[in-house]
Backbone:
């Protein structure tokens, strides 16, 4: 099990190397990894059918009760098998599709890592792990979509995808934290047992909102649908994978997984059916508008996702069975069709619908694969798509208004999807051979394996529908609903049932639309133009505004005027000290010590400090001021010495000396005016600030010495420094032993600061280099 | 400032300061001193050298790039704390070792190496800034 979760990531790390060594065969080698995962997962089918679920658990952060737990049940296994199976074919396909690409190794690495994240996502039982994998899919899909990073459109598509899905990711994080608080567990399996607890709590609304936001953004439901068609900028293998079994299906999976916890309420059904239905129709209509085959498929993915969400929303046994069947059927035919379109594009140089015809002669195998997948998408018997459609119509066949509405939407959506299927999978291959940019010929073997296998699987699964029902459908639907679901799938068409006539109705509609496709398309394009506003534009506007806002804020706070920074810093220091001291009544607590105890030598030192201060203020040149500041500092160091802090005094001396040196050096570097001319108002402002800060610090110190000092710490150090730390200089022992970790942090800061200073000086020098000769003359 | 007198006396001063710096650093555990102060004194010594003989001479005298010294100091201090992990104690638990050397007892300890690390960081950082600021050979001041 751990192997399943880790293997794809390991393979991802090794992929570039394999690509270098194995060259043309690398695709076959790398495809072994997902294939092995697939076979390993197949081994889980038997125990899952027998027992319902196989939990796997590793200790992760035991202090917080967090375990890295996986949960293999019908639902997660169906998803995981689809992901790894299609993943293997995609890796193989990509090796050929991107043959000779400089970054093919990198591409395969991203692809495998993405597959690993997706597997982790569907297998995870722990919600934190689920979130981590969820975010990993976002990151890896970002890399995949933006793979052709030199194209602006690809970069935009990638950024859009990650921004939109990460809004959902953040919502998911909030959702699971609240869910944990309400349900008291991190594991989904434990949460499912106490689902009613969540549904009845006052937090049900917020949790539902968060989870739905996550699922809808990930699964590109209206109004977050626009990122998915733009993600088409990725190379075709990515689209085939992203749209069939992964990424967008993560949202569907989340909804399915949450059904026993959040589902079954009225609001759940209405929201899911509403948004799902809207997305279904929107996607189907948008698909008919396109002439680019890949764009058409992308839009139908929207429709299919809407359909799945709608079915989860309906939540009846038949609807869920339809959802499971449709998920598998869709994954198979969609991946196959994307690969077919990729092959067409690759071999003919175009994927424009109007320029492709009669390709059946040139690419017979591709045509067979396309036809198989197309039949499944239309829902013709004997394909898995047929059974999926029958089940979903049965699921919506009820007298309530919501179900009736869903039924109408389903029939319409299926009809439109069937039209698209006919246009994408059949039309380019029939008719007279037209001219294409490249002379068309059959695609290479690795590009054929995928679509043919997937297309054939759609038929095979339908032929053994009884077994498919018990092995896949029953465990998955049971896991989804939380109670046992009996499969009633059988290889028989009941002509007396109304369902088959509803199917026939949708096929008739599809045929009608297909017949009038040109008119329909023109009409749709006109409508699209008339509205002239899309969520896509809105996204751009928001992003642009965000960048502008960031720029304005930065310019406001980071204006580059050193003087003003210093004023702000010191004003804040004064405020931070004065407000609590005065505001909280500290003034009254101050008691003035006895003045008379100050000895003559102490007066002398104070006089020295005062002299230094006056000299600083009265100095005519900056250099004198710096030196005078040093005098004042030395006086302070003397005070430290007099009051029994030799270490502090010592350090203060050295710091004063070095600051004078460094300040003087800075002076010479900056070539400042020797004098320090300041207008009167600056004098007043700076003087006031200095007085405030100085006064505040003095007040604070007076306040501190007025109270009784808590000496327990110093007593502890004094008592233990020799026996424990073997040193009698307490200050030093504290620095290097008791609080050694602090010191370690501090010296790291000191070094980093020096690094930054040197870096700044070097840039100045480089900028000044052109300036040096002129200076040399002077 | 690079008069003959200063240039002649400077090496003497610098040498004395450096020896004193090491002395201060080593005695720090029991008497006023320590790595921080020692590092400051050593950095001042380098500054004196820079003022009298110029930046390049100071750089040569250091032998290593000052930032390298600072970085090595952080590494030394950090790894002295790591040693205790091998004895099964928490990070930065001090280890003491008393060596007999010609009749005298020399205490060696991980805090000592830690302090030497601090010394190097302070010396390296301040020298890096100081030497970086000095413009040309000896013309800085």
Residues:
């Amino acid at each position: 099990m751990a192997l399943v979760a880790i293997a794809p990531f390991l393979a991802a790390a090794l992929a570039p190397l394999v690509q270098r060594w194995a060259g043309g065969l690398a695709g076959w080698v790398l495809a072994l990894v997902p294939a092995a995962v697939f076979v390993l997962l197949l081994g889980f089918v038997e125990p899952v059918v027998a027992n319902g679920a196989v939990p796997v658990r590793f200790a992760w952060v035991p202090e917080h009760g967090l375990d890295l737990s996986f949960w293999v049940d019908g639902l997660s296994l169906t998803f995981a098998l689809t992901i790894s199976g299609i993943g293997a074919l995609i890796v193989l396909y990509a090796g050929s599709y991107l043959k000779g690409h400089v970054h093919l190794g990198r591409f395969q690495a991203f692809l495998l890592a993405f597959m690993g994240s997706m597997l982790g996502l569907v297998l995870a039982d722990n919600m934190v792990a689920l979130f981590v994998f969820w975010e990993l899919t976002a990151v890896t899909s970002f890399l995949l979509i933006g793979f052709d990073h030199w194209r602006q459109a690809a970069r935009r598509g990638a950024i859009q995808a990650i921004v939109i899905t990460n809004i959902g990711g953040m919502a998911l994080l909030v959702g699971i934290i609240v869910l944990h608080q309400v349900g008291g567990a991190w594991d989904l399996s434990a949460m499912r047992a106490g689902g009613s607890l969540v549904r009845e709590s006052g937090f049900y609304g917020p949790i539902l909102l968060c989870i739905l936001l996550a699922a809808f953004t990930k699964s590109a439901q209206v109004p977050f649908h626009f990122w998915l068609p733009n993600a088409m900028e990725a190379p075709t293998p990515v689209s085939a994978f992203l749209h069939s079994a992964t990424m967008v299906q993560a949202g569907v999976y989340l909804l399915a997984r949450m059904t026993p916890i959040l589902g079954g309420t009225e609001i759940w059904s209405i929201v899911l059916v509403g948004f799902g239905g809207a997305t279904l129709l929107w996607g189907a209509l948008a698909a008919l508008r396109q002439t680019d085959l890949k764009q058409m498929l992308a839009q139908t993915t929207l429709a299919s996702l809407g359909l799945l969400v709608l079915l989860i929303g309906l939540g009846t046994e038949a609807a869920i069975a339809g959802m499971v069947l449709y998920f598998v059927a869709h994954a198979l035919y969609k991946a196959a069709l994307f690969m077919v379109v990729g092959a067409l594009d690759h071999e003919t140089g175009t994927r424009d619908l109007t320029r492709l015809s009669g390709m059946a002669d040139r690419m017979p195998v591709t045509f067979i694969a396309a036809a198989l997948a197309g039949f499944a998408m239309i829902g013709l018997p004997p394909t898995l798509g047929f059974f999926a459609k029958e089940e979903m119509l049965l699921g919506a066949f009820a007298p309530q208004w919501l179900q009736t509405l869903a039924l109408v939407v389903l029939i319409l959506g299926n009809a439109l999807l069937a039209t698209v299927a006919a246009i994408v999978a059949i039309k380019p291959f029939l008719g007279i051979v037209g001219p294409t940019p490249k002379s068309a010929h059959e695609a290479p073997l690795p590009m054929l394996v995928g679509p043919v296998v997937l297309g054939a699987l759609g038929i095979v699964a339908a032929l053994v529908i009884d077994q498919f029902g018990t092995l896949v459908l029953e465990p998955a639907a049971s896991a989804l609903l939380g109670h046992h679901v009996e499969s009633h799938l059988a290889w028989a068409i009941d002509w007396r049932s109304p369902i088959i006539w509803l199917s026939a109705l949708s096929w008739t509609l599809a045929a009608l639309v297909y017949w009038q496709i040109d008119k329909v398309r023109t009409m749709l394009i006109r409508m699209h133009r008339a509205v002239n506003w899309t969520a896509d534009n809105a996204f751009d506007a928001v992003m642009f505004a965000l960048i502008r806002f960031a720029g304005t804020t930065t310019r406001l706070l980071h204006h580059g005027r050193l003087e003003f920074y210093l004023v702000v810093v010191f004003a804040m220091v004064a405020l931070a000290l004065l407000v609590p001291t005065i505001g909280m009544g500290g003034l009254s607590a101050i008691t003035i010590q006895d003045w008379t105890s100050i000895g003559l030598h102490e007066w002398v030192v104070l006089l020295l400090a005062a002299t230094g201060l006056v000299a600083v203020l009265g100095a005519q040149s900056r250099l004198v001021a710096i030196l005078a500041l040093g005098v004042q500092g030395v006086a302070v160091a003397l005070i430290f010495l007099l009051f029994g802090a030799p270490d502090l005094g010592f350090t203060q001396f050295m710091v004063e000396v070095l600051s004078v040196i460094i300040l003087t050096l800075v002076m010479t570097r900056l070539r400042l005016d020797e004098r320090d001319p300041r207008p009167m108002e600056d004098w007043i402002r700076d003087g006031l600030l200095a007085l405030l800060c100085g006064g505040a610090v003095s007040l604070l110190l007076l306040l501190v010495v007025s109270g009784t000092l808590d000496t327990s710490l110093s007593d502890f150090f004094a008592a233990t420094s020799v026996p424990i730390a073997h040193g009698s200089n307490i200050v030093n022992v504290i620095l290097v032993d008791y609080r050694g970790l602090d010191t370690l942090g501090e010296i790291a800061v000191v070094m980093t600061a020096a690094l930054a200073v040197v870096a700044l000086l070097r840039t100045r020098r480089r900028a000044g280099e052109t300036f040096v000769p002129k200076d040399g003359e002077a | 400032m690079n008069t003959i007198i200063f240039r002649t006396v400077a090496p003497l001063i610098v040498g004395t300061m450096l020896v004193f710096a090491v002395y201060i650093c080593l005695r720090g555990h029991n008497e006023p001193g320590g790595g921080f102060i020692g590092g400051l004194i050593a950095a001042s010594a380098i500054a004196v050298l820079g003022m009298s003989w110029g930046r390049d001479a100071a750089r040569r005298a250091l032998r290593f790039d000052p930032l390298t010294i600072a970085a090595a100091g952080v590494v030394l201090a950090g790894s002295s704390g790591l040693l205790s992990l091998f004895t099964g104690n928490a990070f930065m638990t001090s280890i003491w070792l008393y060596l007999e050397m010609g009749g005298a007892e020399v205490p060696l300890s991980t805090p000592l190496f830690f302090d030497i690390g601090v010394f190097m960081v302070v010396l390296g950082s301040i020298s890096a800034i100081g030497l970086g600021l000095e413009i040309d050979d000896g013309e800085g001041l």
User: Anything to note?
Assistant: Confidence is low (pLDDT under 50) at residues 137-141 of chain B.
